[in-house]
Amino acid sequence: MSIPYVVGQWVRGDRFYGRPALLREALEGSRDRHWIVGMRRVGKTSLLRQIEQLAFETPGGSVVPVVWDLQGSDEPDELDLGFHDALLDAESRLAEAGVAPPPPGPAAETIADLAGALRERGRKLLLLCDETEDLFGLLSREPDLAVPLERALTASGARVVLASSVRLAATAGSGPGAGLLAAFGTPAWLGPFDAGESRALLLQENLPPERRPELPEAAVRLLASRCGGHPFLLQLAAKRAVETGDAAQACERLARDPTVTHLCDVDLGLLESADRELLAGLSAGIETSPPPSPVHLARLRGLGLVRDGADGRPVPGNWFLGRHLAAQAPAPGERTSPPPGAPKSGQRKAPTRTDS
């Protein structure tokens, strides 16, 4: 029997799980501008591709989806050619709407022209922008591009969804492009799956019964608990559990696997120092004084980096991240200066907590 979990690639269709509210909002919501922020490998690209598929498959749909991958847009001509490539990928949809892909040209002008051409035919451009932080990296070097792009993305009549890492959200209020992000408002966090979504993914409930993996109920509960709703970890851990027949052993091995340790390192590297210190403190059972604000904790919860432990106290968002943070903590006496998250004056050690 083949193992149906997909690890390391974007998914859509019957391999896509969860995110119903975000899908509805992107396709049917009253606003035309949406900004989605998430950590690494939580499914930003998959979400955009699922929006694309649903828009394309909707009978008589009013929107024409175009996925624009902005990764590697280091120069203005790369930005323009990247958008032209996106239009070639969507050529059949544009043709169905009675519009031919425009020739290569400045991306801002092409977006505005395409949105106008579709509007004349009673349709709307649905522009799905992936790896958006690369665009703003380009704007920091080429600030003259900011105003035309802002006009194209906010005033052309297109419906636009931006997907980016948390790093862009941390710098949203400054630099070229700040006005563009301001037009999109507060981002929606692409956080962890809830219990039902995690279970559906682990059991691959979108597939016919004969194609679903054999995963005992105890394994489902263990994996759901340890992965904390992280879709990549759920897929990876479930795959290993099916292969080995032992979910607990699979998790122990994955906690030391370079794939998981690198994921944790990259995610921590995307965060501000205050976030890293807070997570290190939660992992070590340290309560800060003053405690973190509810707004700070809510943001980390929304990103899947914090959840409630068995005693109701906040802990790292999944078992693997907690293990990684604990492994990074210095041994007693190893260093004289306090590491990130170590108690300062006025701090106290919280009771020891455990989590499955």
Overview of the molecule:
- By secondary structure, the protein is α/β, with parallel strands linked by helices.
- The protein has three domains: 19-189, Rossmann fold (3-Layer(aba) Sandwich); 195-255, no CATH class; 261-349.
- It has helices at 20-28, 44-57, 76-89, 91-96, 107-120, 132-141, 146-155, 166-170, 178-184, 195-203, 217-227, 231-244, 247-255, 258-270, 273-284, 294-302, 319-328; strands at 33-38, 63-69, 124-130, 159-165, 188-189, 286-287, 306-308, 314-316, 348-349.
- The strands form three sheets. Strands 2-3-4-1-5 form a five-stranded parallel beta sheet, sandwiched between helices.
- Helix 5 runs parallel beside helix 7, helix 7 runs parallel beside helix 9 (178-184) and helix 12 (231-244) packs across helix 13 (247-255).
- It is globular, with a radius of gyration of 22 Å.
